[in-house]
């Protein structure tokens, strides 16, 4: 099985390309909110990106009645602390339970 993890400390950063690792920020939402309430928060996160932390996308964990119970955000970042700092500054109203570096596997590798 191949697991892809970007190690920014050993990856050859040649030709002026800056490689950033992938991070997952988990935001529990309790009590759950309407999906429409997430849009303004997403705009704030996007507006606060820096050269050290960049919001890529998010997945919403929905309840049976369609409310958002958690938000899982993918970030590119220099390190976990850079992502945490960007989150604290941009969206303090959406606290996170953790920020972890991600690896990646592909379903096609198992055909």
Structure, briefly:
The chain is α+β, with helices and mostly antiparallel strands. It has 2 helices and 4 strands; from the N terminus they run E-H-E-E-H-E.
Write the layout of secondary structure elements.
Blueprint (H helix, E strand, L loop, with lengths): L20 E13 L4 H10 L5 E10 L5 E10 L2 H11 L7 E4 L10
Antiparallel strand pairs: 1-3, 1-4, 2-3
Features:
4 strands; 111 residues; 2 helices; alpha+beta; Alpha-Beta Plaits
Distinct helical segment count: 2
Strand content: 25-35%
Rg (CA only): 16 Å
Instruction: Note the overall shape.
Output: globular
Number of strands: 4
Unreliable spans: none
CATH-defined topology: Alpha-Beta Plaits
Kindly describe this structure:
This protein has helices at 38-47, 80-90; strands at residues 21-33, 53-62, 68-77, 98-101. It has one domain: Alpha-Beta Plaits, CATH 3.30.70. It has a four-stranded antiparallel beta sheet with strand order 2-3-1-4. A hairpin with a 5-residue loop joins strand 2 and strand 3 (68-77). The model has no long low-confidence stretch (mean pLDDT 87). The longest helix is centred in the last third of the chain and has 11 residues, at 80-90. The protein is built from two helices and four strands. By secondary structure, it is of the alpha+beta class.
């Amino acid at each position: 099985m191949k697991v892809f993890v970007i190690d920014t400390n050993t990856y050859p950063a040649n030709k002026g390309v800056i490689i950033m690792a992938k991070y997952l920020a988990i935001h529990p939402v309790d009590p759950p909110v309407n999906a429409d309430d997430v849009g303004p928060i997403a705009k704030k996160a996007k507006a606060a990106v820096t050269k050290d932390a960049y919001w890529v996308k998010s997945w919403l964990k929905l309840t049976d009645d369609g409310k958002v119970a958690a938000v899982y955000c993918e970030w590119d970042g220099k390190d976990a602390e850079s992502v945490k700092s960007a989150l604290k500054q941009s969206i303090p109203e959406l606290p996170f339970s953790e920020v972890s570096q991600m690896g990646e596997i592909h379903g096609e590798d198992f055909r």
